[in-house]
Amino acid sequence: MKYVTVYHYDAFTLKPNKGNPAGLVLNGDELNNNEMQEIAYKVGFNETAFLVKSDKADFRIRYFTPGQEMNLCGHATIAMIYALKTLNLLMLKKHVTIETKAGILDIKVDLSEDNKVIVTMKQAAPQFEAFKGSKKDLVDAIGINEDDLEDDFPILYGSTGAWTLLVPVNNLEVFKTMKPNNSLFSTILNERSRASIHPFCFETYDPDADMHARHFSSPYSGTIEDAVTGTASGIMGVYFAKYKKDTGRDSLKFIVEQGHEINKDGRVLVNVSPNECSYDVEIAGNAVYVNKFEILLEDKEISN
């Protein structure tokens, strides 16, 4: 048995216990796969990130939910880079590369006008796939009605590193009544059975925001809802550029708000720029240190 230190940071907010919590482990090279999964299970956050060495980038980050390893996690990346910067582990670097299972990604670290650290993360190339399942089963699984769907926009799987089902909804009020039954997701999402479900709309609480969303976890993740999601916000940005606002060759910057319904509201800044083949996508945000704690590691196998 041994103890492992976990740092708790909240991403996409400057207020502790708002935004999206991430567990950060800075000595990932000392841990094996089972130990990482055990730590993530015991921490219980939507994601715990582990810093490890890389021979391809400045360093590597591995991401675990309580139930499985993920290819990429936006909020945990923002939190990790923010932590390394504020702990003086990045020294004066303003640009780093990270190795992930979604590829090598570029990260920028800047200071805002009020001297706050802002982390900008380039995401993987966007991908979309058609949803061919039952709309009735889909809305039943998240606790809304078919007439709550926005008929003018398609339901699509999307990914900038992690697959989610983008579900356009026609009014903000219905988000308060959503009650996901995550156990049903894999039987409804036949094309991407391990995907999450991400309902969103173009109405917002904040007049400065452009889109509002909730994010319901894959049943394999061991959690119910993700408070403020970075990767999903990135693919939402591409969706916005393609279907809501025909930007042509212009770049687009906007704000996604999320988390209000579970008292974890936060903001994600999204930058979308057309390229020769598709779009370049970046997300940006702040983070805040909450606390640190010890996990007693027994290296018992965790069933998924």
From TrEMBL:
The keyword Cytoplasm belongs to this UniProt entry's keyword annotation: no
Matching Pfam families: PhzC-PhzF
Residues spanning the membrane: none
Signal peptide boundaries: none
Molecular function, one GO term: isomerase activity
Xref: InterPro entries: Phenazine_PhzF-like (IPR003719)
The entry's keywords: Isomerase
Keyword ATP-binding: no
Similarity section: Belongs to the PhzF family.
PANTHER family reported in the protein's UniProt record: PHENAZINE BIOSYNTHESIS PROTEIN, PHENAZINE BIOSYNTHESIS-LIKE DOMAIN-CONTAINING PROTEIN
Entry-linked NCBIfam families: PhzF_family
Name of this protein: PhzF family phenazine biosynthesis isomerase
Species per Swiss-Prot/TrEMBL record: Staphylococcus casei
